[in-house]
Specification:
Length: 107
Amino acid sequence: TEAGQIAVDLISSYRAAYQDNQDFSDPPCHDPVAVAAVIRPELLTLRRAPIDIECSGELTTGMTVVDRRGPEDPDLLTAAATGLDVDGFWELVLEAACPRPCTVWAF
């Protein structure tokens, strides 16, 4: 469909920009993973850890800092994702983006 081709073109452009500017083979999918964490939290492996935003660092201002030293504290309310069921994640994305029957496309 035309909408599908637009999505492929946008994602391909996004991927190429990351390859050219960040030397990543594939771009990160921060927003879709965040949505997946809400919809299907079992797709992520989480580790409880202190998390802060660096506000005064000379080289790291604005960066998120996760302190993974030491054992997990079960009383912490913050956790960082350390793993993702990649196949399950993409299955969820395709379920959301593609009506049945769905033809999987390659990028």
